[in-house]
Automatic annotation (TrEMBL):
Described purpose of this protein according to its UniProt entry: One gap junction consists of a cluster of closely packed pairs of transmembrane channels, the connexons, through which materials of low MW diffuse from one cell to a neighboring cell.
Stated name of the protein: Gap junction protein
Gene, per the UniProt record: GJD4
Any Gene Ontology CC annotation: connexin complex
Transmembrane portions of the chain: 77-97, 193-214
Keywords, alphabetical: Cell junction, Cell membrane, Gap junction, Membrane, Transmembrane, Transmembrane helix
Native source organism of the sequence: Bison bison bison (North American plains bison)
Keyword flag Phosphoprotein: no
Domain Connexin N-terminal intervals: 43-76
Connexin cysteine-rich domain segment(s): 150-216
Subcellular localization, as worded in the UniProt entry: Cell junction, Gap junction; Cell membrane
Domain of life: Eukaryota
UniProt topology in membrane: Multi-pass membrane protein
Family: Belongs to the connexin family.
Length: 235
């Protein structure tokens, strides 16, 4: 099997083991979630700490208040969340490509050995042989479960850390502040809109993952049609 046939076999193997819902989820994750966070989130949060103004001159008070207000940067948390949710899909894709390449190599060697046997019945020069595309539906279900748990865990952590909206004013009484200190967040409305967008993306991702899981289970229950990849033997 030459390189073009091997690449075609790997692409077909990966394509046949991912449902249409899974492909839609991948496009949604890459184009909507990651691109919007990088292009829209970076300008909004590039000056978040510098413009976090508190009505006090007490040394260190503003830094402590900001640390309480945002233990983790919103943008960094969202990027880590997006990468973590993509990680199970990346691992599954690498696993499928690795196993598919191994299977293609073994079957290609078998076909070459058969082509050298001129006494083999029905084997003629230039004959076509079929490679069955392997089924990785069990691994796909496992990766969907991991993706669902990851999305749910980050959603719960996001709610505990940040809630749903960015407040315009944040009151702080933690030492070294000597009294109640009011701090004001820069661009609170724009950040709230971006946070609501992230919540919507998380919810949509979770729903698509659950739908993907249901589709894959139904597809497996009904029985997948046999998938063949034709490879021409060249003597």
């Amino acid at each position: 099997m030459d390189q073009s046939d091997l690449l075609g076999f790997l692409v077909i193997t990966l394509n046949c083991n991912v449902t249409m819902v899974g492909k839609i989820w991948l496009i949604f994750m890459v184009l909507l979630r990651m691109v919007v966070l990088i292009l829209a989130g970076s300008p909004v949060y590039q000056d978040e700490q510098e413009r976090f103004v508190c009505n006090t001159l007490q040394p260190g008070c503003a830094n402590v208040c900001y640390d309480i207000f945002a233990p983790v940067s919103h943008l960094r948390f969202w990027l880590i969340q997006s990468v973590s949710v993509l990680l199970p899909s990346a691992i599954f894709g690498v696993y499928v490509l690795h196993k598919g390449a191994e299977l293609a190599a073994r079957r290609s060697r078998g076909l070459e050995d058969a082509s050298e046997d001129h006494d083999a019945p029905g084997l003629t020069p230039g004959a076509r042989r079929c490679l069955t595309v392997p089924d990785f539906s069990s691994g796909y279900v496992v990766h969907l479960c991991l993706r669902t748990l990851t999305e749910a865990a980050f959603g719960a952590l996001h709610y505990l850390l940040f809630g749903f909206l960015v407040p315009k004013r944040f009151s702080c009484t933690h030492p070294p502040c000597t009294s109640v200190v009011d701090c004001y967040v820069s661009r609170p409305t724009e950040k709230s809109i971006l946070m609501l967008f992230v919540w919507a993306m998380c919810a949509l991702s979770f729903l698509l993952t659950v739908a993907d899981l249901v589709c894959n289970v139904c597809w497996k229950t009904q029985g997948r049609p046999e998938r063949l990849f034709h490879h021409r033997i060249v003597e």
